[in-house]
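Quick one:
INPUT:
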């Protein structure tokens, strides 16, 4: 298993589409910025067959520091949740043996 970075993805896309990497990098970064902006506004993003991004409200809770056993109040916060789509689930479950 290898670690794939944004640069790796940009290079792969640029190679497939025969475009300059700088153009693809700008498009990818713009897309990611828009995803972040929409989630920050509380919107749900649905990409068919890929998956759904949405924010969930987590309630405030009382936790415990394991080192000092001190009780700590954790404030309420919003978390991003991702649910994989049908095509992604199918591709991830089956190993890519036939490349």
């Amino acid at each position: 298993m290898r670690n794939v970075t944004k640069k790796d993805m940009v290079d792969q896309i640029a190679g497939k589409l025969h475009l300059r990497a700088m153009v693809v990098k700008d498009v990818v970064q713009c897309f990611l910025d828009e995803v972040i902006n929409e989630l920050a506004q509380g919107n749900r993003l649905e990409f068919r067959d890929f998956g759904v991004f949405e924010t969930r409200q987590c309630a405030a809770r009382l936790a415990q520091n394991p080192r000092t056993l001190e009780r700590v109040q954790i404030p309420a916060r919003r978390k991003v949740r991702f649910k994989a789509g049908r095509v992604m689930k199918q591709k991830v479950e089956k190993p890519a043996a036939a490349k």
